[in-house]
Amino acid sequence: MLDLAAELHRWCEQGRDFAVATVVAVGGSAPRQPGAALAVDSGGAALGSVSGGCVEGAVYELCRTALETGRPATERFGYADPAPDPEAPPGPVDGDPFAVGLTCGGTIGVLAVPVTVRFGRGADRATVAEALATAASGGTAALVRVVAGPGESPGELLGRPLLVRPDGTVSGGLGGGAELDRAAAAEARALLAAGRTAAVEVGTGAAGGRCGRPVTVLVESSAPPPRLLVYGAVDFAAALVRMGRFLGYRVTVCDARPVFATPARFPEADEVVADWPHRHLAAQAPDARTAVCVLTHDPKFDVPLLELALRRPAAYIGAMGSRRTHADRLARLRRAGLTEGELARLRSPIGLDLGARTPEETAVSIAAELVAARHGGSGAPLTGGALPIHHDSVPRGGAGPRPVRSARAAGGGATPPAPASASAP
């Protein structure tokens, strides 16, 4: 839902009643990930997408039903196969495989929730409106909603919202008591720290509600964009800035030489800084979402910088240079006291092997490695492979999408592990 925050915030301010259908679980090669949403207002206007077009019509009607009844509803959409006759000539077939199925072969679980002041849902609307206002203004918060459990019938808990702020304060409630809210808020803060949206199981016993079973909640995170820190104001940096912005990073370029570190040379950067790289990084406090790209390939710049970076919790640290430069750099870093474990975090030479030569091609190579690092990809060609295309998915024919047990158990801000079945399709 929060991916539509700007428009939905305006709908709230205009007093519109609407319903939002949100992807809460995916399996196989699904087109959209959890958090993707489609909204429908009382006048029939639609906004967003949950599938890229495959099941939009059915989800639209699900939203209309939720608006009319005031009750949340869930639906699972899978592959629809029209089973054409292989001997028949090309042309239309009976039925419409796009109406209710995913032609990509995946599955998605969708939750449709009314956001209205009718049917006694005014408090829920106020919580959702606050979450949308926070996300629309670029603020940090997590919206938690019950999507399954306890048991097979979540009843009145389904869709209830809880807004969790970075300082731990909350608004709203999941309807299962204070213990459930506290457990959900703890999981939400862990996912918020990583800027992730995911379904997690929370609570057992009293916290889990009826039957002592866990409750599954969807945590949608609204957080500032991850940072890309590019050190070295060179031609390669200009291309990487453009690629970083395309991927949604907030990009900073830093170089110790003021004549090169100018906004005129990097107009697409969010920030251009003239400072010694290691001194700049020391003031940045990189976190588990920060990427550091060192393009200077000059020992007086990159060794002090990497000595500092490799001891900070950045998500990605890469350095440009030849293999000979890399070997010399490692030797210098060892003499500076870095351990083999710390050095193992360094991706150098930077980027994936694409045969890149131009700055633009090199930027694509680096961006590809950034994406692979973010999602746990191998960087290998998909052709002829057997691993899932989407690493958070379960394979077709499996038990279906399952939530992670705990974001906190996965290492706080770290990426929660994929289900065990995802590793062996």
UniProtKB/TrEMBL annotation:
InterPro entries: MoCofactor_Util/Proc, XdhC_CoxI, XdhC_Rossmann_dom. Gene3D superfamilies: NAD(P)-binding Rossmann-like Domain (3.40.50.720). It holds the Pfam family XdhC_C. Residues 382-425 are annotated as: Disordered. Residues 228-370 form the XdhC Rossmann domain. PANTHER family: ALDEHYDE OXIDOREDUCTASE MOLYBDENUM COFACTOR ASSEMBLY PROTEIN (PTHR30388), MOLYBDENUM COFACTOR INSERTION CHAPERONE PAOD (PTHR30388:SF4). This is XshC-Cox1-family protein. It comes from Streptomyces carminius.
